[in-house]
């Protein structure tokens, strides 16, 4: 059943990894791979890869029906739509019609349905649990995000060369970086070097 914590470990094809919390499961999903220059970051190569991604928190949806190649293809279409829509909102641009249509199409399917377990104290997803249900849940979360109070807090990392996008859920709304351990620290280091270079 769904946990509240978001975030995933992202791996750089050149080496190294870091923890990135996009602030929403749908945005975490948007960073599971990509198209064009982002294809090197692809993690969803086979249907089983999608099944494994969805089984992790916060979705925690263990498939009871194997993921199909068609569902994997649909997942990548939704992922790209979320990516495009998030970047458009972060840049204060109108959302492309294709992205809106893809998100709405995924959301039109039945979502994951919660079910109280026999002990009456824990919850799980009601079977059958299909990838289509999980994708609908992600798409619906993106709709809520884009139309809700945090819509204006969708941001791209402030680093010049980092395209990661997140929703700033912090109380002050002052988050600038994908992760302090990555772009935040790099910025601090550059600023320190610049100050030292100008000091007499």
From TrEMBL:
One Pfam family this sequence matches: zf-CGNR
Domain Zinc finger CGNR: 153-196
Gene3D superfamilies linked to this entry: Jann2411-like domain
Residues that span the membrane, as ranges: none
InterPro entries for the chain: ABATE, ABATE_dom_sf, Znf_CGNR
Superkingdom of the organism of origin: Bacteria
Official protein name in the record: Putative RNA-binding Zn ribbon-like protein
Lineage: Bacteria, Bacillati, Actinomycetota, Actinomycetes, Streptosporangiales
């Amino acid at each position: 059943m769904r946990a509240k914590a978001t975030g995933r470990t992202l791996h750089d094809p050149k080496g190294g990894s870091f923890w990135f919390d996009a602030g929403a499961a749908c945005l975490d999903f948007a960073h599971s791979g990509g198209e064009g220059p982002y294809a090197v970051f692809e993690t969803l190569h086979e249907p089983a890869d999608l099944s494994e991604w969805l089984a992790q928190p916060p979705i925690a949806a263990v498939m009871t029906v194997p993921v199909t190649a068609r569902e994997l293809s649909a997942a990548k279409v939704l992922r790209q739509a979320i990516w495009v829509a998030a970047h458009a909102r972060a840049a204060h641009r109108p959302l492309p019609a294709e992205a809106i249509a893809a998100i709405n199409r995924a959301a039109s399917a039945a979502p994951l349905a919660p079910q109280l377990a026999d002990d009456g104290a824990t919850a799980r997803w009601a079977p059958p649990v299909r990838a289509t249900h999980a994708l609908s849940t992600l798409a619906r979360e993106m709709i809520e995000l884009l139309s809700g109070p945090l819509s204006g807090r969708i941001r791209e990392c402030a680093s010049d060369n980092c395209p990661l996008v997140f929703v700033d859920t912090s109380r002050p709304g002052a988050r600038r970086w994908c992760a302090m351990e990555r772009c935040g620290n790099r910025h601090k280091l550059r600023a320190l070097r610049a100050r030292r270079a100008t000091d007499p």
